[in-house]
Design brief:
This protein is mainly α. The chain has one domain. Helices cover 59% and strands 7% of the residues. It has a two-stranded antiparallel sheet. Strand 1 and strand 2 form a beta hairpin.
Length: 86
């Protein structure tokens, strides 16, 4: 689940436009609407998919940072297109 599709889901559920939108609500109202949705429907499948994607992205970024700090360089294979660290 991409961040953009999750934001569209939240706009539809809350009835507010995100703060970055031209006619969006204040950031405090947006955050309150998000937390209200989380309290009302803690098992929302769309929100669960976003959490799963976000967690995987954060884990990948942490893992890649650890590889870079060890001096490895991310390389893409010419034939297979796979990612290698060397």
């Amino acid at each position: 689940m991409t961040k953009e599709s999750w934001l569209r889901h939240m706009e539809m559920i809350t009835g507010f436009l995100r703060p970055s939108h031209e006619n969006g609500v204040m950031a405090s109202q947006w955050k309150e609407a998000l937390s209200c949705h989380a309290r009302i429907d803690p098992n929302c499948p769309v929100c669960k998919e976003r959490k799963k994607t976000r967690r995987a992205t954060m884990n990948r970024k942490g893992r890649e940072e650890a590889y870079r700090s060890c001096g490895l360089v991310k390389v893409y294979g010419a034939v297979s297109g796979r990612v290698y660290w060397e």
